[in-house]
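To: structure subgroup
Subject: Chain for Friday's discussion

All,

I'm putting the inputs and outputs inline so they're searchable in the archive.
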Amino acid sequence: MNNFFIIANKQKDINLEITEQIRHHISRLGAVCNIYDQYDRDVSSIDIPEETQCILVIGGDGTILAAARMLVGSNIPLLGINLGTLGFLADVNLADLSKTLDLLLQDQYQVENRIMLTAEVYKQGKKAATYIALNDFNINRFGASRVIGLKVGINGSVIDRYRADGVIVCTPTGSTGYNSILFEEPVSIEAYKPFLYRTVRLIIRSHREEALSFFRLQDLSSGY
């Protein structure tokens, strides 16, 4: 790789100190590095140069999730550099940063393909909104404290009906991120959301009853 694009979260990288270190390292070895430093959770308007071979996302999981949504269909690899707290999605910590950049510049890397989800919201029979997620969709009740009725189906066939606080549909990438904070009271996380290896072609449906389902994906249209 010799052409990089950095999406930097200035709330994490104060004064862009890490970002400038990365650009200096890449430029010193003769490669191109462009920077976008106006991240505000909406990166849909970023103009990425056509020659870009890798996007480096500097921040936390939120920054990476926003960048992943933007990159759907672009076929540009994304690498997260963790400046957040937990960093479930970031592959690189600061201690390994220089070594990682050198490996990228020497074309010594492997690309992982992750599945993503699309959700469509309909109101009165008409599509009102479309959302894309790398981790999960969480459908909850709004306002009222009582449970709601839910119907889950796949390919037009109903597979389950139940009453619950909500439903979560997640990818393997999202199977780790919120296991410890999904529920208000202490529960056994194994009963609700198992950990899946991040590249398997499965999605999980879970809810607050002791039940979960795995859906194996046969046809995958997009990812990053």
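Points worth raising on Friday:
The chain is about 15% helix and 30% strand.
Residues 30 and 117 are 38 Å apart (CA to CA).

D.
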